[in-house]
Amino acid sequence: MKKDESIHSFRVDALFDDHWAPRERATLLFVFRDDEVLLIHKKRGLGAGKINGPGGRVEPGETPEQAAVREVQEEVGITPIGVRDAGLLRFRFTDGHSIKGYVFRAAGYTGGEPVETVEALPFWCPVEKLPYARMWADDRIWMPCLLGRRRFDGAFLFDGDRLLDVRMRYPDEAEAAGEIRKG
User: Fold this and answer.
1) Contact by Cβ (8 Å): 91, 26
2) Which residues pair with 29 in a beta bridge?
3) Cα–Cα distance for residue pair 93/96, rounded to 1 Å
4) Spatial contact of 57 and 67, defined as CB atoms under 8 Å apart
5) What is the dihedral angle through the alpha carbons of 121, 119, 86, 12, rounded to the nearest 10 degrees?
6) Among 11, 65, 72, 147, which one is most buried in terms of CB atoms within 10 A?
7) Taking the complete model, does pTM exceed 0.90, yes or no?
């Protein structure tokens, strides 16, 4: 957003622009076990106090998938296996911060049971009882896609932790309908 542009004139659709450059790239990785998903109570950083999936910043030289696996290892002490791309999240905050988030799902894990660290308190949650009231406001919009294995691409505008605007796209469906050109 330009300095003279008010937040009220910002269009969340601009986050889908190929030239949009976020301030940071980050990941979320949701590990599944039977009818449960591994969530964390985030202890520090952006979203501290909220419930989310393990994740964090993509470091220079890492792919988003490598970063997602590393972050799960660091935050909860397990190694996800069967990792698959699930979606993309684009965030813009009224304070100017912006994040491009890569979302993954994992079919399982190795390395024992998840453990608490300085960053996160992990817990297994039944997929039908997600604690949306303790999560970011956008989660209730895209998490059903993650759970239903429907790829998603979302753009969200936040003022602090208040969701102001949202746009969702579904790449597989658009591609099947001929709306996305490859090339």
Assistant:
1) no
2) 104
3) 5
4) yes
5) 120
6) 72
7) no
- Do 106 and 82 contact (CB within 8 A), yes or no? yes
**Which residue ranges make up each domain of the chain?**
7-176
CATH fold of 7-176, please? Nucleoside Triphosphate Pyrophosphohydrolase (3.90.79)
Question: Which of 34, 11, 31, 44 is CA-nearest to residue 128?
Answer: 34
Report DSSP letters for 49-110, one per residue: TSEE-SEEEPPTT--HHHHHHHHHHHHHS-EEEEEEEEEEEEEEETTS-EEEEEEEEEEEEE
- pLDDT level of residue 174 (50, 70, 90 thresholds): low
Mean pLDDT to the nearest integer, 45-66: 95
Question: How far apart (Å, rounded) are the C-alpha atoms in residues 83 and 41?
Answer: 22
